[in-house]
Amino acid sequence: VRLAVVIGTYNERENLTPLIDGIRRNLTGEDLRIVVVDDNSPDGTGVLADSLAKADPRISVIHRPGKLGLGTAMRDGIQRALRDGAEAVATMDADLSHPPEALPRLRNAVQSGADIALGSRYVPGGRISGWSWMRKLTSATANTLTRVLTGSRVHDNTGNYRLVRRSVFDALDVNAIRSEGYAWQIEFAGLAQQLGFRITEVPIHFINRRAGASKINRSEILRAALTILRLSVQRKKTSSGNPQR
Ligand SMILES: Nc1nc2c(ncn2[C@@H]2O[C@H](COP(=O)(O)OP(=O)(O)O)[C@@H](O)[C@H]2O)c(=O)[nH]1
Ligand SMILES: [Mg+2]
Question: Which residue's CA is minimally distant from atom 20 of ligand 1?
Fold first, then answer.
């Protein structure tokens, strides 16, 4: 199976090499591709990514001119992976919060029939280490609101650790996703559920980054909240029914 892993980077110089090593160690049986989407990181992550790519033809790098958002980075990386023939595409953070050791379990979930395998902190066996209570509360609230307001049946709607079967992207055009930042993941999960794809949540142990700084900020949180409200309104409109039916 040709499996591509898409990684968005913004100032992840210390994390990128151990992450890529972890991915290569954990996906040995695959025809692997790695796509790094770097937004002109001031710390030189893009230069490092180029040198890693030079040493390993399975790695490719997309350079964007500036910080254009995690969501659009995933979109651009996924489209590159599909053009390169990927049969399944994973997304993950670059800061080692998403343990590469879980990749085989995500792959097994897709091999046993899931269209989408989500690395999940909010199912039994899932854990978070190293986050402040405030950060935990923010994430738990976003996920609870998504479930209550949009009818999502998924427990971890905000995580970026996912493996998606190629066929999902035939029905779900990533260009139609309006969110550009962290909210992109919430919108993608919502659309996938509307389209009836089989989603499996695989428990992961999320470990807060040791190197570098988080890029989440108030504006990302606000935009995630607005995305949840928008999905909730769209759901009401659809469920209020089409009179012709
Ligand atoms: N290319 C790109 N990557 C981003 C952007 N914003 C965040 N990232 C990456 O997305 C991942 C998650 O970001 P992080 O700051 O760890 O968020 P947190 O885990 O929610 O605190 C990391 O790999 C970041 O480098 C962006 O605008 N562009
Ligand atoms: Mg992080």
Answer: 216
**10 ligand 1 Cβ < 6 A:** yes
User: Ligand 1 within 6 A of 88 CB?
Assistant: no
Question: Residue 146's CB: how many other CB atoms inside 10 A?
Answer: 24
Burial 39-63 (b: 16+ CB within 10 A, else e): bebeeebbebbbebbeeeebbbbbe
Kindly report the pTM of this predicted structure.
0.96
Query: How confident is residue 238, by pLDDT bands cut at 50, 70 and 90?
Result: confident
CA dihedral over 169, 171, 173, 179, signed as positive or negative? negative
How far apart are the C-alpha atoms of 102 and 110, rounded to whole Å? 13
Partners of 3 in the β-ladder: 32, 88
State yes or no: pLDDT of 4 exceeds 70.
yes
Could you say which DSSP state residue 42 is in? T
